[in-house]
Amino acid sequence: MNVIKTEIDGAVIIEPRIFNDERGYLFESFSERDFFREVRVVDFVQDNESKSQYGVLRGLHFQKPPFCQSKLVRVIKGAVLDVAVDIRKGSPTFGKHVAVELTEDNHRQFFVPRGFAHGFSVLTPEVIFQYKCDNFYAPQSEGAIAWDDPDLGIDWKIPADRVILSEKDKHHPRLKDAEWLFDFNEKMY
Predict the structure, then answer these.
(1) Is the pLDDT of residue 32 over 80?
(2) Does residue 187 lie within any of the structural domains?
(3) Is 184 inside a domain boundary?
(4) Which of 1, 36, 122, 127 is deepest in the core (most CB within 10 A)?
């Protein structure tokens, strides 16, 4: 696998080695040995999958301690713009984001560490999205920031009037108004 570092330490893009022949393709979507060596030691405990249509925007979500999560995300069908925002107070990249297009054709994966808000927008008629988490979902620990916070400057690659949100995602605070964020100096692993 090829690990591509981003402008924000810890958030990395992973490109698998793909083996193509007349039958199709094969690649390792996850190798604990390689991931531990090339990215970080992470104990993934839960796999999730979602199906969405064009215009759906999910995010920007996170879980608060002690249930914070790292995620390894990928697309099985379609394409998304996947975004991670550094919400660690005191971080040199606080409030900055990384955006990467994940598609069924590029097979890229994106590792989103703890201390980041995460979301994605659906760019194709349909998408199937999968992700691994290193902590179990805990509804009492949910946190989120507004997807359209102008201070973040995220271009979701879909027109605002075509965005489809859950009722919850319509009402999150801007980053500067968020009541709870991570502390950059606090160990989360």
Answers:
(1) yes
(2) no
(3) no
(4) 122
For residue 60, say if its preceding peptide bond is cis, omega within 30 degrees of 0.
yes
**By the 8 A CB rule, do 172 and 60 touch?**
yes
Of these residues, 61, 97, 107, 172, which one is catalytic? 61
The CATH number assigned to the domain holding 77 equals: 2.60.120.10
Q: Does residue 131 have an active-site annotation?
A: yes
pTM over the 0.90 mark: yes
Residue-range definition of the domain harbouring residue 90 = 2-178
pLDDT higher than 70, residue 189: no
d(CA 91, CA 104): 33
| In-domain check, residue 189 | no
Indicate whether 183 belongs to any domain. Answer: no
- Average pLDDT for 149-178: 96
Is position 54 annotated as part of the catalytic site? no
* Candidates 107, 118, 131, 172; catalytic one: 131
